[in-house]
Amino acid sequence: MKSSNRVIMLGDCQSFYASVEKADHPEYKDRPLVVAGDPERRSGIVLAACPLAKGKGITTAERLGEALAKCPDLVVIKPRMQKYIDVSMQITEIYKTFTDLVEPYSIDEQFLDVTGSMHLFAESSEELANMIQSQVQEATGVYTRFGIAETKILAKTACDNYAKKNPSGIYTLTKEMLPETLWKRPVSDMFMAGSKMTRHFTVMGLPTIGSVAQTPLGKLKQMMRRKFGKNSDIKAEMYWRIANGIDDSPVRPGTHQVAPKSVGHMITLPRDYAKLEEIKVVLLGIYIKTCVHKGSNLLILWRNNIFQVV
Ligand SMILES: [Mg+2]
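Above are the sequence and the magnesium ion SMILES. Below is the predicted complex in structure-token form.
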């Protein structure tokens, strides 16, 4: 198989906006800090919380008022998006010293294909990830985590589900490991599966990622058609491929330039947001996440508690 020899990393920045602010404000080093939509008003929304703030129970996208109730001595900083974009690009430049195949995926996540260049720098992909991690930390003060795998989807999965919880911040996930690792996890942990889809899968008798992966694709399509109608085949195949870690897409460099293609991004919010103020801040976050490197063809769909930007 052509793709089986690839070495792909997803580098993710921990608490990105908050880490950038902490690096810029050493006086707040040991204080819980959040970047929030509108610090003057308690109705603002937390866009990023540093690990110390998260330790106090503060979560991204919660209301600032709630966060301050949990932690009255919280440092609250107004977002400086241009600064975060600049640091994101600086990190891209560091990644590019290790491979020319770097694809910004969002403002704080980037794919690296190091298949061809790894041997120039290190004995193993973990050793290389560790080197890159140190360089980014030294240059920007931002701590990065790396998921390593043979496809982009598995690298992303390795990062989100394992590297972030690993003391080293680095985790390699091979296809052979899937039955013993990812497949045992609840379907709610699956990439792209929001709370609604999770409920549907559970009702369909598919409570784990492995149960989705091991359902023959034809059968999964049938099951989803019964729930969502004829047009759900693409969705069924998408989830089936994600669960099986199948993804042939290459790491596409050069997406810093304005790309003609539109991009997609979806996040699930912890609750419904009704006020325009709140929505604007959340949208700003998504907008930055999806469009910073990719131009601004933007169509926003908002249904239930899911924003979709396509
Ligand atoms: Mg991150």
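Residues 81-96 form the longest helix (16 residues).
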